[in-house]
Amino acid sequence: MTAEHMLLWAQAPALEIQLSSASERAVTQKLHNCMPTAELWIAQQRQSPSSQPSPTQCISELQLPAGKSSLLIAPPEWQDEEAFLFADMGDIQTAMDRVHEVFEAISQNPDLRFVMSTGDVVQTGAPAEYELFRKGGGAHLDIPFLSTVDNHELTEDTTRWR
User: Fold this and answer.
1) CA dihedral 89, 94, 95, 100 (to 10 degrees)
2) Measuring CA to CA, which of 60, 72, 126, 135 is 20 to 30 A from 49?
3) How confident is the model at residue 58 (pLDDT cuts 50, 70, 90)?
4) Is 150 a residue whose pLDDT tops 70?
5) Which residues face 2 on adjacent strands?
6) Is the dihedral of CA 28, 33, 35, 37 positive or negative?
7) Rounded distance, CA 153 to CA 121, Å?
């Protein structure tokens, strides 16, 4: 986060963030992996995204007040206790050349809210493997992809998970 920009990657359907600013200022907030129907609330005021370049990317121009404030990014039904559907998968690290077909099928089901991965998205944890996933697999999804960390993610540089 800089004074003018906040870049976030969601790993949950709803995010609640406490912010503090010495003075009122404008901030561009970019959220990747957001719920497609996400709404943004700051200081208990609803803000509409300025743009949504993809179903899971939200960009908002915020007026951050001086002092402490709460930021909530969540779909309207985030506190509902009703049943919902999600896809579950794991160990896709050796199928990266064909997993896009599964993701395309998942995106065709309007009832699914997100994909939950039980890990092993990569084989060795190398940055190039994450980039391959982002471009080859995850790019085909119209819903968020939430993943746990498993042994293959911890093979190379484990500092990214601290």
Assistant:
1) 80
2) 135
3) confident
4) no
5) none
6) positive
7) 7
Which tokens sit at 54?
A: 């993809």
* CB neighbours of residue 37 within 10 Å: 12
- Long-range contacts formed by 59-62: CB under 8 A, 24+ apart: 59/28, 59/29, 59/30, 59/31, 60/28, 60/29, 60/31, 61/26, 61/27, 61/28, 61/29, 62/26, 62/27, 62/28, 62/29
Measured over the CA atoms of residue 125, residue 126, residue 132 and residue 138, the dihedral's sign is positive
14's CB contacts (< 8 A; 6+ apart) are 35, 72, 73, 74, 75, 78
CA angle 44, 47, 53 (to 5 degrees): 145
User: Considering only CA atoms, which of 120, 79, 85 is closest in space to residue 106?
Assistant: 85
In DSSP terms, 16 is beta-bridged to 72
114: tokens are 């997100």
The band of 136, judged by pLDDT with boundaries at 50, 70 and 90, is low
Q: How many CB atoms neighbour CB 21 within 10 A?
A: 14
* Domain 5-74 CATH assignment equals 3.40.1000: no
Specify whether domain 85-161 bears CATH 3.40.50.300: no
